[in-house]
Design brief:
With 130 residues, the chain is an alpha/beta fold. Helix content is 48%, strand content 23%. The protein has one domain: Rossmann fold, CATH 3.40.50.2300. The strands form two sheets. The chain has a five-stranded parallel sheet, with helices on both faces. Strands 4-5 form a two-stranded antiparallel sheet. Helix 2 packs parallel to helix 3.
Length: 130
């Protein structure tokens, strides 16, 4: 599998940075981290094109759903994963309506998270090679 671009968005710096480290240790991922909606815009404006978005829903300057919408406008093939502490049905309904592929509740088993990212990256790159 060629390198897969993963954007991790979380206002909790420790959570975001540890997710980045986890992914880099277990796969061929090029991981960028953003701590706010403004950071997401900066990362994208610098030319980074995520294949997979892992985002918290409650962010400084916007929501995870707004981040997904913003990225979708620029990168239609991106897969969206909510990685959040919000697990009520209305939260799941919100992410489903926003087009998220997964809604994971923290804490998430690290191996499970990496397996989801790996699977989504393989699907994206398989489709792009056809």
């Amino acid at each position: 599998m060629k390198d897969c671009n993963v954007l991790v968005v979380d206002g909790n710096r420790d959570a975001a940075d540890s997710t980045k480290i986890l992914l880099e240790m277990h796969g061929s991922y090029v991981v960028r981290v953003a701590y706010s909606f403004a950071d997401v815009k900066e990362v994208l404006n610098n030319g980074y094109k995520p294949d997979v978005l892992l985002t918290e829903l409650n962010l400084l300057g916007g929501s995870g759903c707004a981040v997904a919408e913003y990225i979708r406008e620029k990168h239609q093939n991106c897969k969206f994963v909510a990685l959040t502490g919000y697990g009520r049905q209305k939260d799941r309904d919100s992410t489903a309506a926003a087009g998220f592929d997964f809604h994971l509740i923290k804490p998430v088993d690290p191996q499970y998270l990496e397996s989801i990212v790996r699977h989504e990256c393989q699907n994206i790159h398989h489709c792009s090679l056809e």
